[in-house]
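Question: Send over one sample?
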Amino acid sequence: MAKVTIYTRAMCPYCSRAVSLLKKKGVDFEEIDAGRDPAKKQEMIQRSQGGSTFPQIFIGNEHIGGCDEMMALERNGALDNMLS
């Protein structure tokens, strides 16, 4: 499986939804709490080329966007292929 990294912040319903889907799929992922860590937030923004909202999700080195984008990939049947 591809390495998944998700940048989150506390009390973020979109973050919770995205993490929940990854757990439901049995995906191992790295969750980085960037909400209270300015250096991690800056890393997230730089890595996503300007994405400053939460969450920001990466599959391998590919930035897929946030929760809405990941849910769209799931609806279209493309997420499983990206994860494998």
User: Anything to note?
Assistant: The mean pLDDT is 96.
